[in-house]
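Appendix B, record 7
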Amino acid sequence: MSSSTSRKSTLSSIGPHMGLTGPVATILVGPAEESIFIHRNLLTSKSAFFNAALAGPWAESTTGVVRLSEEDPELVSLYASWIYNHEWAKDADGKEATFDTCCRLYVLADKLGSEALQNAAIDRLREYGMRSQVGLSVNTISFIYGATLPGSVLRKLVTDMLAWEMNP
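Structure tokens (predicted):
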């Protein structure tokens, strides 16, 4: 089963059990514009970006279609899972989200103006730090510093983790 099919089946099984009704937004993700469907009321209540796009004076508010051409479909799928049930710890294959995935999800949440998910990602990253040494890679650190602003909570956390790892 492809990850795309897995994401669609996971999301379609979540919605009906929650008794959700109302219009659904279509999020076209990545260069291939993979479709992810999320109830508009949930999407706009969890994200300042989607609230502005789907309720403002933009074409998206009429069509209900938002393009995130530079984002990773897997990350947006994890975001959708979190919107519906506040759980995103597992990827489409059922594996626990890695430290790097949690960092990337924090950055996505920052872009989308989803403070609650940013907090959840930081909590998960702190759990990783308390369980064992994370062994931060240069690539992860470079990504974090390239994708966040000075003073970012994620930058502060990673700096603290590095300092902790360096302390014998």
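Remarks on this record: Residues 4 and 34 are 8 Å apart (CA to CA). Confidence is low (pLDDT under 50) at residues 1-17.
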